[in-house]
Design a protein that fits this description.
With 509 residues, this protein is mostly helical. 58% of the residues lie in helices and 3% in strands. It contains 20 helices and three strands. It has helices at 61-64, 73-100, 102-120, 127-139, 141-154, 161-186, 189-197, 214-219, 223-236, 245-251, 270-296, 304-313, 315-326, 331-352, 359-387, 393-408, 410-420, 425-442, 456-461, 504-508; strands at 4-8, 14-22, 43-45. It has a three-stranded antiparallel β-sheet with strand order 1-2-3, with no helix packed on it. β1 and β2 form a beta hairpin.
């Protein structure tokens, strides 16, 4: 131990270095170890390899390829590559989904995940190829679950969409919580990658349950294909389906779509620009703590897999709480409370984290921070969907995720500062980010009980004149409308051709 050099740790105390040793060649062979005295400049890189703590796992790329010391940023860079792949994939495949359909994009995403992750296990010795396959395997990550969700939203009733979004997030939570336990059990990253990748092929093998959005097909004038998908829905629901192509064409005529210019339309006019900017700030302030907490949980004391598991498990009560608060006090106030909770929960962590005896308290407080992050995510997702008009809803939400993922790549570098400089820095950064997010979200309009914008003009006026210090008021019950079956669809205007409340599943029934 006398030959291992000493260096300051991220907690501020003096410990043994993991990368350097004292240069014993400065002393003649046979010198009494008690007489060895070294200065700060008498160090050299470790000459005898590295020893790894294998208490919780046996094989990971970092231990197999020695991604430590001068290669310490290799793992961080791969994580950044994965985040960039998700950003570019959301942009490219997300736009493609509106052109060629949701189903082809979903299938392409699944194939890329299978190819990238499965072949990556054989290429960790070649760093650039490993990073490339990690990029391919992550390119379709977001669209692999966004495309099915969009289809579900487009075939369901309005009143069911919030619940469907919640249950999709329940599945997401299970996907975040269970893999750490699986890795802890397997202890080998190769088997873990295969176990979590190959089952994705099941989605390709069940074509009867992977459908294209009938609403999207109808808006494209593809009535024959639309009928095929509606028949699939009716078959699964054990219902008869008697609608003909001519009847469908009469019910859902192709209307003239309001002309938009993609992302540029998000910034058409001062008010729309302000709303888009505030939403982007809020997404960034939500995403950076998400990735920072995920990575930092692996640096905390105790079992790293249980740390990740608890941070994933806390998402479930956060989403249920988010739905309750968003439907009672509104999206805006819920989001403000969540961001302020992030900032306040970081303060005690900063005060106690340098004490190695407070690890259990730090872990508990970090889980509380994650709770507020997930609460903010739920409210923010609803705000993004409801603030933008119909013609920009998917573009606006996707653009927010894209920008936030770009800034999310800062997460691993924030953790790097914490592990190599001062362990308090990540939580100080998250606390400040929480305050910025609270301010940005407080300036957004409330969307609960509001008539959502349908046209660009309505989007440019949405939220103007709202009182800041007010709770959303539930409107009075309206008189029931005449049943859609008694309406004359031939006399509907181009904006009334498809009643929003009538879902494709109801048509199929």
């Amino acid at each position: 131990m006398r030959t291992i050099s000493r260096a300051p740790t991220s907690r501020g105390d003096l410990g043994y270095s993991s990368c350097t040793m004292y240069n014993v060649s400065l002393y003649p062979p046979g010198t009494d170890p008690a007489q060895l005295v070294f200065g700060e400049n008498d160090t050299i890189p470790c000459q005898y390899g590295y020893w790894y703590d294998r208490q919780y796992y046996d094989k990971i790329p970092a231990t197999q390829q020695n991604w430590v010391c001068e290669k310490e940023l290799y793992a961080t860079n791969v994580f950044a590559v994965i985040r960039m792949a998700e950003v570019l994939g959301s942009f490219a495949l997300g736009q493609l989904g509106d052109r060629i359909g949701r189903l082809p994009v979903f299938l392409v995403s699944i194939v890329m995940i299978l190819v990238g992750r499965s072949f990556a296990v054989m290429t960790d010795e070649i760093y650039w190829l490993f990073a490339l396959l990690a990029f391919i395997g992550s390119f379709g990550t977001n669209t692999s679950f966004q495309s099915p969700l969009i289809v579900v939203m487009e075939i369901s009733r309005d009143e069911d969409r919030a619940a469907l979004s919640l249950w999709q997030l329940v599945g997401w939570t299970l996907g975040v919580s269970l893999p750490p336990l699986a890795f802890w059990w397997l202890r080998d990253w190769v088997w873990f990658m295969l176990l979590t990748s190959i089952p994705c092929a099941l989605f390709i093998l069940i074509p009867g349950y992977t459908i294209e959005s009938p609403r999207w097909l109808a808006t494209q004038g593809l009535y024959k294909k639309c009928l095929t998908e509606l028949k699939k829905i009716a078959k699964v629901n054990a219902r008869q389906f008697l609608l003909t192509e001519d009847e469908l064409r009469e019910r859902v005529p192709v209307k003239e779509v309001e002309k938009t210019y993609g992302i540029a339309s998000l910034f058409s006019g001062w008010h729309m620009t302000k709303l888009s900017g505030l939403l982007l700030f809020s997404w960034i302030c939500n995403t950076i703590p998400t990735y920072t907490l995920l990575l930092f949980s692996m640096q905390m004391g105790g079992n790293p897999f249980l740390n990740v598991f608890w941070q994933g498990a806390i998402e479930l009560p956060a989403y249920f709480c988010g739905q309750m608060l968003c439907n009672s006090i509104g999206r805006r106030i819920t989001n403000c409370i969540a961001f302020m909770g992030i900032a306040l929960a970081c303060i005690p962590i900063i005060l106690i984290i340098q004490n190695s005896e407070t690890e259990i308290y730090v872990t508990t407080l970090a889980v509380i921070v994650k709770f507020f992050v997930c609460l903010s995510y739920f409210a923010l997702y609803l705000q993004s969907y409801e603030v933008y008009p119909i013609t920009l809803r998917q573009t606006g939400t996707s653009f927010g995720l894209i920008i936030s993922n770009i800034f999310g790549t800062l997460g691993p570098y924030i953790v790097y500062l914490g592990t190599n400089n001062d362990v308090r820095l990540p939580f100080a950064a998250m606390g400040l980010i929480g305050l910025v997010g609270c301010f940005a979200s407080s300036c957004l309009p409330e969307t609960l009980y509001q008539k959502l914008p349908e046209t660009m003009q309505e989007g440019r006026l949405f939220g103007k004149g709202q009182k800041f210090w007010s709770l959303p008021q539930k409107p009075r019950a309206e008189q029931p409308q005449q049943p859609a079956t008694n309406r004359d669809y031939s006399k509907l205007s181009q904006h009334e051709s498809v009643p929003e409340s009538q879902s494709d599943s109801e048509i199929a029934a």
